[in-house]
Amino acid sequence: LNNPDSILPIKHINQKKFTIVWIGKTKKNEFIKYCNYYVPTTFIELLPGKEDWKSRIGNQVKYSFCIYVLDTLLSDTSDIRQLKTIVESMPAGNSVIVNFKNHQNLSYVPTKIAAIQLQSANPNDYKYAAQAIFGGISLNAQLLVNVNEYYKFGLGKTTKQTRLKYSIPEEVGIDPSKLKEIDNIVNSSISGGAFP
Q: What span, in angstroms and rounded, lies between the C-alpha atoms of 166 and 78?
């Protein structure tokens, strides 16, 4: 976690507009869903190697707090150049980059921008990252690899939980398949007129 000016977790969320800019081949709806539990968001998807990112983003990011999600390893030089152009124009204090799994991407992120690095990209990582941004969970982790002069092994910060957390059933010892069974029973009872 890189957290200049302690912008994470985001404060005063009801006074801001939020845009998620997804850079990757597959958008993860869990991340978007969990962000939307806290605030409504606008979504922009940028496909690596396929388009002019700057023109796709347009002026929308000037008026929003932007959450940039890197969900792919940027290896194509034109994609790296486009990312550098985008991050150079990001206003400090009004953007965060969330990078899933591919540590090398951090080498393109300036230190003035808040960044969260996740070690993997499993379904729960997307849920937890969204909650960490908005203060639903605290962060207390360190970078496990050396990336460059700034993003070094051991770099990390701690944030506090400032809002309610959205738990997943496994966290409290509930088997999610059992919840589906309960849903089926209740829905069947409602359609059968057992409940008013």
A: 38
